[in-house]
Amino acid sequence: MEHHSILEKQIRKFLTSNYQENQEIKTLLEVISKSYHAFERDKKIADHAFDISEKEYQNVNADLQAQIDIRKSSIVKLKEAIRALDETENNDFDDKDEDLISIINFLEIQIKKTKQLETDLILAKETAEKASRAKSEFLSIMSHEIRTPLNAIIGTNNLLHYQDPLPSQKELLNVMKISSENLLSLINDVLDYGKLEEGKIILAERDMNLKTFVKNLRAAHRLRAEEKGNNLRLMYDDDIPDYVIGDDIRLGQILNNLISNAIKFTKKGIITIEVLLNNISEEYVDIDFAIIDSGIGISADKQEMIFDRFTQANTNITREYGGSGLGLTIIKLLLQLQNSDISLSSEEGKGSKFYFTLRFKKSSTSIQEENNKIQKNEAPDLTNIHILLVEDVEFNVMVAEKMLQNWKATVDVANNGEIAVEKARDNKYDIILMDLQMPVMDGYTATKKIRESNKIIPIIALTASITMDIQGRAMEFGMNDCITKPFNPNDLLAVIQKYTNIPL
After folding, report:
1. 354 to 239, 272, 279: CA distances (angstroms)
2. pLDDT of residue 108
3. How many angstroms separate the CA atoms of 432 and 419, rounded?
4. How far is CA 407 from CA 114, 161, 248, 381, 389, in A?
5. Contact 60, 28 (CB under 8 A)
6. What's the pLDDT at 37?
7. Extended strands (E) in 110-258
C-alpha cells in the first residue's frame, strides 16, 4: 500500500527496511496514512468553503455598498427636488447628514398643504359652477326679455310682406327687416358671447343667395353711411355661384359688425364691401370677404389688442364713437369656429381693411329654381293642419297666429301651459308650438303632462332663450324640436313640414 507522501518521508527517515515484517507496525502505518489523507481532504474542503464564503461576503458587501450609495444619492436628489419644489420654504437640510426625519416632516407638511389646496380647488370649482349657472340663467332671462318684443317687430314685418305692399313700401319694409335683423345680430353679440367662449355654438347649413344677402346688408347700412357723408360700395365677383350652403345668421353677425365699425370710424369717405371668389372645387367654394374703409385707421401697436374683449384702441374711442369693444372678439371667435380667422391691414389716419376667407359647400339650387318656387307657391298651404299655439305674450300670439292663418292652417291658442294641457286632451292636433316661459304652468310642465297621455304628437319649443341648457332641457321633457325666437318663417315652416309630412 502506498502511504501518504509525508508519512513516506518519515518512514524512510526513522524506520529500517525490515519494518514490513512486523504486521502491527504495518497496520499502524496504514491507519496513520489514512488519517493524513482524511486531514488533507478535509483541509481542501475547508479551504474551498472559505474561498466561496469570502467571495459571497465580498459580493454582499459590494451590493450593500452600492445600495448605500444609491440611498445617499437618492436623498441628495430628494433634497434638491424639495428645494426646487418650494424655494420659499426654509429647507435647511444638513448635507453631511441623511436628515431623513426632516425630509419626512417636510413631506408631511407638503401633503397637508396639497390636501388643503385640493379642498380649496373643489370649493372654487363649486363656486365657479354656481357662477356659471347664474350667468346661464341671467342670459336666459335677458334673452327672453329682449327677444320677445323683437319677435313682434320681425314677425309683423314678415306679415306685411304677405299683404302685397307697393314697391316703395316693399323697399322700406326690406330696410326695416334688415335693420331689425341687424339689431338681432347686435343682441346675439352680447347673448352669444358666453356660448362662443364655451364652444357651444352649432353652425347651421342653409341655402343662401350670397349676392342678394350682401346687397341687402349694403341696403340696410346705406342710410347710416350716407348720414356721415360716406359712399358705401359693393364689389361682388360674378363668378361666385348663385347659391352656397352656410350659416347666414353668423355671416350676418360678422359682416354687420365690420360694416358698422367701418361706418362708425369713417366720415365723408369711402367704404367698400368686397366679396371675391378665391377658389372653387366640386364640393366647396372659398370666398374672400373684405370691409375696406378710409377712416381713422389703427396704429400698429394697437392692432393686436383690439381683438381682446371689451377693448378699444384707446380710451377716447368709447366716449366719441360708442361701442362695447366686444364685436371684434366675437368676429374672431365665430371665424375660428369656421376654421378661419380675421386679418387686419391698417395705418393710422389712412383707413383699415378687415378681411377673411370662408369655405362654403356648393348648393344645387339656382336662381331660376328659386324664382320658379316663389312664383309657383308664394304662400304655403297648411289647409289640413290643426295647430295648437301655446303663448302668453299677446303680440307674439298675434304675429304667429296671423302667419299660420296666412298659410291657411287652423290655429287654437292657449295662453298658458294649463290651458294647453286641457286643449290637447280634448282636441286632436297635428302639432303643438309650445312657449317655455309662461305664468300658471310653464312649457316644460305642460309638455310633461301632455306626454303622460300622448306620446306621439310633435311638440316644438318656441323659446327666446339661446342657451344650450334650455334647449337640451326642452328635449329632456319630451319636446321634439326647438325654434329660437325671433324665428324665420321659413324655419318655422320647415319644422311644421318635417313633423306633419305636408308637401311644400
Report:
1. 22, 11, 20
2. 80
3. 13
4. 66, 13, 25, 5, 14
5. no
6. 83
7. 206-209, 231-236, 243-246
Report yes or no: 187 and 330 within 8 Å, Cβ to Cβ.
no
The architecture that CATH gives domain 379-500 is: 3-Layer(aba) Sandwich (3.40)
* Amino acid in the structure at residue 95: D
CATH class of the domain at 165-366: alpha beta
Q: What are the residues whose beta carbons fall under 8 Å from the beta carbon of 503, sequence distance 6 or more?
A: none
**424-446 burial: b if 16+ Cβ within 10 Å, else e:** beeeebbbbbbbbbbeebbbbbb
How many whole angstroms separate alpha carbon 315 and alpha carbon 197? 25
Q: How far is CA 486 from CA 183, 303, 395, 462, in A?
A: 11, 35, 12, 9
Q: Where are the chain's structural domains?
A: 5-75, 165-366, 379-500
**Residue 109 in grid coordinates:** 407638511
CA–CA distance, 471 with 482 (Å, rounded to integer): 7
CA-CA distance, 90 to 323, in Å (whole number)? 52
Q: In this structure, are residues 343 and 356 in contact, taking their beta carbons and an 8 Å threshold?
A: yes
With contact defined as beta carbons under 8 Å apart, do 458 and 431 qualify? yes
Q: What is the DSSP letter of 478?
A: T
pLDDT value for 322: 42
Nearest to 288 by CA among 298, 299, 302, 274: 274
Rounded average pLDDT per 10-residue block, the chain, 504 residues: 78 77 80 84 82 81 82 76 66 58 75 86 86 68 69 75 75 74 66 61 82 90 88 94 89 89 91 95 94 90 70 46 60 88 89 94 72 54 91 83 88 93 93 90 93 92 69 85 79 86 66
Neighbouring CB atoms inside 10 A of 467's CB total: 21
pLDDT score for 427: 93
How confident is the model at residue 400, as a pLDDT?
Answer: 85
| The pLDDT of residue 137 | 67
Cell 342710410 -> residue: 223
Amino acid at 495: V
One-letter amino acid of 274 = E
pLDDT at 318: 43
User: What does the block give as the cell for 375?
Assistant: 312664383
What letter represents residue 363's amino acid?
Answer: S
Q: From 136, 108, 119, 269, select the one nearest 200 (Cα to Cα).
A: 136
Helices (H) and strands (E) in the chain, counts: 15, 12
Cα 349 → chain centroid: 38
Q: Is 96 helix (H, G, I), strand (E, B) or coil?
A: coil
